[in-house]
Each structure stands twice: as structure tokens, then as C-alpha cells.
Structure prediction request, 465 residues.
Amino acid sequence: MTISIALISPKGPLYRARGGIFKKSLRYQPLTLTTLAALVPADLQTRISLHDEGIDPIPDSIDADLVGLTVITGTAKRAYELAARFRSEGRTVVLGGPHVTLLPQEAAQHADSICVGYAEDSWPELLRDYSRGALQPCYRQAPDFSLDRPDMPFARRDLFSNGQFLTQAVFEATRSCAHDCEFCVAPAAWGHRQYQKPVDWVIRDIAQFGQKKLIFVDLNLISDRAYARELFTKLIPLKVEWFGLSTVLLAHDTDLMELLARSGCKGLLLGLETVNPASLADAKKKFNGSVGFKQLIGDLHHLGIAVQGCFVFGLDHDQPDVFDATVEFALDAGVDLPRFAVLTPFPGTPLHTRLEREGRILSRDWELYDGQHVVFQPRAMSVQELAQGHERAWKKVYRWSSIARRLWVARNFQPLALTANLGYRFYAHNLHRFYNCDWPIQALPPGLNALSGIQITTSNKAVCG
Ligand code: B12
Ligand code: SF4
Prediction:
């Protein structure tokens, strides 16, 4: 019997195929689906289709006995909607991904089976059980899970049609991270240790795919410096150009930084988080304070590496002046691509637990957990100030004059930096489309309304912006 499997990445508001603010060409291929497709046991007779709802709507009629949905918090609501539809059509629904790992009990209510944690072993096991009519309700990552598997299959990037995405050349060497930042999902979901694929496997994967411009989705490529050194050294002969993520701790190892540049790194996303030292302590990310951001950014520019600098607003020591101060820093340091997010207490994180204890979680509508909505009560400003300050910062940092100033300071002229700035300028000027804030408040503690600047209407909706 042939099992027909559909793997789906549900849409979020930002990447919605119709009505989202990004055009489809800005999205890179989702490695989650191509990885899961590769893990389908070869000895089972299967037909596999992949659907990224951020690119194309899910067809009305889908060819699937079993549907696998990948769930992040911001897409959980949509995933559950789709799960209900497919189950009502008699299909078997499996859920997996970060949100399922963080909240398995919630996810289990919407599925025939769930996969908690990384699924390199559990997904094939689940499919075998399904094929013999013995599907279990829950599959979990084993405690001794490892990615050190030289015989792991490469992601099935070929299953998506070429041309749908900004790029298909999406790779991964490691997962999770050794740090323990209060707001981060990775240590909460997978523990604060890094899982590493064999470097030679990663090099073979890149070589067999054959493209010269790559994206690494690893959360922190330099989490283990010895591993990073080996990876960067072995990338050099491939003569590729790559973009990835790192912590600012790179600043403390100039040899590694030079090696990273020689390996072809052209752009690095850095979690700068905040320019306010007291807020760094709030985020339990004090190690950022050991680095002079401006010096690091200058050094990276000198090596021909563009910087995407990510900042978060709403930490406990953030006062209303944090927005202007952050924009001024981004301009002054010549951050090629600044990115701002509203602090988001993802369920399962220590931040969520703390804010819940303090009675400061304002909404459990997971669709709003997208880094752009305020879902908690900030300590030193109102909800309205945080929402509006975040939006204002985006607009200010992507004014024409600001783009010119940042790129001039950077003096690291790459065509991509200019194109990406134009994309982000468009994004900044469309943010208001998400700031209708017409969401119900659950669990707003008495007395917080006045503090937060939220006006409660008779229909118990928040009005902001
Ligand atoms: C690519 C990516 C995106 C993409 C697409 C997301 C997607 N659905 O694929 C885009 C750019 C859209 C995106 C956006 C955002 N993202 Co993002 N993103 C990632 C990133 C960098 C890579 C994901 C990936 O490809 N991993 C590689 C694959 C192989 O691993 P995996 O997805 O974990 O899958 C494995 C298991 O989880 C499991 N699994 C996963 N799904 C399924 C499904 C089934 C059926 C089964 C059986 C198993 C299974 O099996 C896989 C193999 O082991 C991760 C970080 C990371 N490196 O994982 C963050 C991450 C997923 N994103 C995150 C966040 C916070 C965001 C944003 C809020 C960021 C922002 N401020 O804008 C937005 C949210 C947008 C929204 N609508 O809510 C968080 C998740 C938070 C959460 N609780 O959901 C992560 C974990 C990063 C982090 N540490 O904070 N993101
Ligand atoms: S350094 Fe980055 S990836 Fe690691 S725990 Fe902190 S925020 Fe998460």
C-alpha cells in the first residue's frame, strides 16, 4: 500500500500568501519540511508532497493519508485550524516543531499524534507504526539524541519547485545553543546544549547541492568554537558565500572572525538585543555586555561582512527613551540591516514563567506571539508606548536619510545590503497593518489597565496604536 504524505508549513501573518506584506520572493525554502521528507524511510512505499503556505495556499483537495504540520507559536492557531479540517476529512494528522515541543499537551488535543523534540528517530518510527496500523499518540526525542550521524540523508530540497523561493540553498550544521537567555525558545525546548552534524557531512551536503550562495539557519554557529573552526576551515575550498547567525562573542576571537570571513561569510545576524546594560541583565544575556558592539561591527565591515543587528524592546529596564537611543546607535555604528522586535514571552520559556508569576501576561492568543505585538505588560512603559515606539523605531531607522547614513558609515557596499534595506523599508512602512490590536484581553490583572495605557472597551477588546 502506498502512503500519501503531505508536509505543511502553515502561514503566519507576515508571510501569508495572500494579504501578507512580503512578496513570495523574500522567503527562503523551509528546511524543516525538506528534512522531514528525507527522513521518510525508503523501504516504505510513499508519495510525498510539500506545502509552504507562506508561498501558496493549501489546495482545497489534498492528496494525503497522513498530514504532518510544523508548528511555531505564531502559526499554532493556523496549524490547529488546518489540523481540524484534515481530521474532519478523515486524514491522520501529526504535529511537530518548536511549539509542540514547548506545549505538547495543548498540541496533542489537535492531532492524532505528536512528535516532541527533534524527530530524526521518532518521525521514521511514527511512519512505520502508522503503516502497520499502530500509530501512538506521542513520540519523543530520546535523551541520548545526537546529530552525529554520517549516514543521515540530505534534505530533499528537490521536492519543492525551483524558483518559488528567494533561495533553496538552506543548510544547517548545528541545532540549539549552549547559552540560556531568558526569552529564547531554544534552551527551553531543546536544553542548553548544541547538537552538531559531522562537519564532513555538512560539506558534502553543500557540495552535492552545488549552489555558491548559502544560508545557514543555525541559531549560533560559534556556540562551540572548535566545531566552528573546523566548519569554517572546510568551507574555504568550496568558495561559497554564506549568511548565518552568531553571538557577539565572536568579538573575543579575532582568529575565528578572520577564518569566518575567509570561509565566505558575507552577512551575519547578531543578537545585539539592547543598548541598555541593565536590560541585558534582564534578558540573562550579560555576556553581550563584554563586547563593544560598535567596534565589532566595524571589524566585521572591515572583513567585508554585512551585519543584521537584532534588537528587542520591552525588557524590564527599557524606558520610553530606549527607541531613539537604539535607532541612534544603529545609525552611528552603521548597522547594515537593523531589526527590531517586541519582547515576546514564548510559552515554555523562563520569561513566560516569570511574567505569568508576576501577572503580566496579557494575551494567550498565539497568533500574536510573532515578535510584533505586545502580549505582556511592560514594566517601565505602557503597552501603547511599547507598540508605538517599536513601530516608530522601524520607520526612523529605514528613512532614506537613515539608510544612506548607515550604509555610508558601514562603507561595505554590497548590492544585497541595499536591496535588503529597500525590502525592510517597505516592511517598516507597512507595519501599521498589523497594529490594529483588536485582540481580546485574557487575564489582565485588576489595576493594570491604567498602568498599561490600554483602554478597555465594552467588548473587552484592547485598543492601541
Ligand atoms: C526558518 C525559520 C523561520 C522562518 C520559517 C519558520 C518555519 N515554520 O519554518 C520564518 C522566517 C518565517 C521565521 C519567522 C519567525 N521565527 Co523563526 N525560525 C526559523 C529557524 C531559523 C530555522 C527553522 C529550521 O528550518 N530549522 C531546521 C529544522 C530541520 O529543524 P526544526 O524546524 O526544529 O524541525 C525539527 C524538529 O523540530 C521536528 N519537527 C518540526 N516540525 C515538525 C513537524 C512534524 C510533523 C514532525 C513529525 C516533526 C517536526 O523535526 C525536525 C527534525 O528534527 C528557527 C531556528 C532554528 N534554527 O531552528 C527559528 C525559530 C523557529 N523561529 C522562531 C521565532 C521566534 C520566529 C519569529 C517570531 C521571529 C520574529 N521576531 O520575527 C518569526 C515568527 C513568525 C510568525 N508568524 O509567528 C523561534 C520559535 C519560537 C516559537 N516558540 O515558535 C525559533 C526556534 C528561533 C528561536 N530560538 O527563537 N522563522
Ligand atoms: S545566544 Fe541566541 S540562540 Fe543562544 S540562547 Fe541566547 S538568544 Fe538563544
The mean pLDDT is 89. The first helix runs from residue 31 to 38. The chain has two domains: 3-140, 169-434. Residues 9, 12, 14-15, 30-32, 35-36, 68-70, 72-75, 94-99, 102, 115, 118-120, 123, 172, 184-186, 217-219, 341, 346, 370-371 surround cobalamin (ligand 1) (CB under 6 Å).
